[in-house]
Amino acid sequence: MMTPTQFSGVCLVTGDVPRLRRFYEQALQVGATGDDSPAILEVQGAQLTLFPADGMEDLAPGAMQGAGTGCVILEFAVEDVDRAAERLTGLGAPQVKPPQTHPWGRRSAWFRDPDGNLLNLYSAVAG
Fold this sequence. Notes:
Elements: E1 9-14, H1 17-28, E2 32-34, E3 39-43, E4 46-52, H2 53-59, E5 73-77, H3 81-90, E6 95-102, E7 106-112, E8 118-124
Parallel strand pairs: 1-4, 5-8
Antiparallel strand pairs: 2-3, 3-4, 6-7, 7-8
C-alpha cells in the first residue's frame, strides 16, 4: 500500500542567504539552523529552506537557467494578523497590503521579502 504524499516544506533559492535568513528569522520569530548553505527554518508542519543559487548550480549545472526570484507567495497562519503586521512594519518589512478581511473567511496582510517574494500572514475569521 502506498503512503500518502506529505508536503514537508519549501526551498527558496537566493543570491543572499544571510539576508533572507535574517528577514525570515525576524518575520517568523524562529531561529534557523545550518551555515547558510542551506539555512533551514522549522515552522509547525513544514520547513522553509534557504539555499544559495551558486550551490544549486554546483549540484546541477544549468538548474537555475531561466529561474527567477520573487515569484513565490509563502502563507503562514498567525494568531493575530493585525499584531503580526504591526510588528513586521516596525521591523521595516515592506508592506504590500495592510490587514484586510476577505469574503472567503481570512484576514490577511502581505509583505515583500528581500528577494521580492510575498509573505502572506493570515488568520481565519468567523463567518
